Structure formats: structure tokens, C-alpha cells
Amino acid sequence: MFLENTVNHKEQFGWIEVICGSMFSGKTEELIRRLKRAQFAKQKVEIFKPAVDVRYDEEMVVSHDANEIRSTPVPAAANIRILADTCDVVGIDEAQFFDDEIVSVCNDLANKGIRVIVAGLDMDFKGNPFGPMPALMATAEYVTKVHAVCTRTGNLAQYSYRKSTKDDLVLLGETDEYEPLSRAAYYKASLKEKVKDIEVTDPKELSKNSEKSNE
Q: 75: Cβ–Cβ under 8 A, 6 or more apart, which residues?
């Protein structure tokens, strides 16, 4: 699928690869695999991640399986454009946490002949497209959607269900905060949450209030 051997060196253009999916689907694992293969080929590789992501390590990109590769944490997408200018391959993890400029940064790098490999969540915990990921997927030459296994049904999972009641869009966490769910399991779990939020008034209280208003 990733045809490095078909690169036309006269053209001098790179491309963008996007690896997306839910949490625990192996996005970072696949990103690291591709980057290490490029390093083995003696290509100049730089890896970047958002400075906010310090779950496992401040500098390393680490998968849930503890596979890791050294990276440069950056506070904004614009930093990547400056630091990656002379690379052959650029890897970017947790792209959903970057600002919208990450899209133009990736395209600028690809237009300079750099292979750009991006990994990130395609949907947030509410099931909505996450940050700049839809635009990155639209402009990429290659998009790979990986899946986790649903913890409730055993089917393929594409949703990252948040088990806690915190409503922040950006909430770094692991299995204590999230679980991967299939469409059916996610729908049922979300429905249960909505039912919990419905306020049910005792009919006797309604009757009392009605009597008071009629007095």
C-alpha cells in the first residue's frame, strides 16, 4: 500500500499518510512501525507530538504496547514546519490535539518532497470528527483506518467511549477513562447516559403543585 519504490525522484514531491481510528486500535504502533522501517533504511526521520501529551513520557512517542520512538514535543503545528525542513520522513502522533495549521504544515512538507505520516483519533468521545483530522484525511494520499476490539461485544470498535463523567473535549487517559466500543455498544451506552440525565418527577409532586397553582 505504501509504494516507496514507485517514487519519481524527478518530480520531487512527497505525500501524506494518515493512520486513524479509536483509542486502543494500534494507531501509534503502526506509526512507530513505519518510522522505524524508514530509520532502518538510513532515511532522515523526525517525529513530533503535541507538548500536552505526557501520559507515558515527555519526549518519547509510546504505544499502549510500550513500543516507543524518540520524538520532539511541540506546542503548535507551526514549530513542525521549522524543525522538519530537511527531513526525508516526518512522523506526527496525536494529530487531533494540534491546531488547524497542522493541515497546511503537512501539505507544505509533502510539497517539498517529504513523506509525512500522521496518526490520530478520527472521532472524539462524543462520536464527532476530531479537530483537524477530517481535513488531514481529505488531503492525504493514503488513509488507513485501524480498529480496536469492542470490550463489550468482541466486534470491531471504532468509538472511544469515555467512562468518566468529565465533559472536557481534551482529556488524556487510558483504560480507566476510555474503552473502545462498536457502533451498537456505543449507541446503547450513550442511550443509557441520556436516560440517566432525564429528570423524572414524582406524579404525586405534580399533583400537589397543580393543586397549589389552582388555589
A: 50, 51
144 neighbors 2 (Cβ within 8 angstroms):
no
What spatial distance separates the first Cα and last Cα of the chain, rounded to whole Å?
77
Q: What angle do CA 167, 136, 79 make, to 5 degrees?
A: 85
- In angstroms, how far is CA 162 from the centroid of its own chain? 14
Domain boundaries, the chain: 4-146
Q: Which residues contact 87 (CB under 8 A, 6 or more apart)?
A: 44, 45, 46, 109, 114
Length of the chain, please? Answer: 215
pLDDT band at 61 (very low <50, low <70, confident <90, very high): low
Residue 108 in grid coordinates: 507544505
- State the pLDDT confidence band at 85, using cuts at 50, 70 and 90: confident
The fold for domain 4-146 equals Rossmann fold (3.40.50)
Which residues in 3-39 are b (16+ Cβ under 10 Å) and which e?
eeeeeeeeeeebbbbbbbbbbbbbbbbbbbebbeebe
Q: Is 215 a catalytic residue?
A: no
Q: Which of 94, 174, 205, 211 is catalytic?
A: 94
